[in-house]
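User: If only I could read backbone structure tokens as easily as an amino acid sequence. Underneath my words sits a plain record pairing an amino acid chain with its backbone structure tokens. This is the protein in question:
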Amino acid sequence: QVQLVESGGGLVQAGGSLRLACVASGRTNSIYIIMWYRQAPGKEREFVAGIKWSGGSTPYADSVKGRFTISRDNDKNTVYLQMNSLKPEDTAVYYCRANSAYWGQGTQVTVSS
């Protein structure tokens, strides 16, 4: 089992920045990828960014390319999502996901106009 805990969400004005963190625990040696997803009210959950635990490419959704950066700190079992130039349409609950089976509880991000 893998447990994931997100943090770092909050309320920010448009144009501002936030950094989300996803801390993994449990069987972390079974993790090969961690991804960030988000779900806005009334919308389906969507992929935001991903990063392999061992390194390599970091895919992003088109809507966040150039504004969001995903990174990892393997020593801390933590994946970060640096979000810059935030827009009101980035408002959502942000979730991290490990492999295909494990999800965190989510952290709310609200961007005011």
User: Anything to note?
Assistant: The first strand starts at residue 2 and ends at 7.
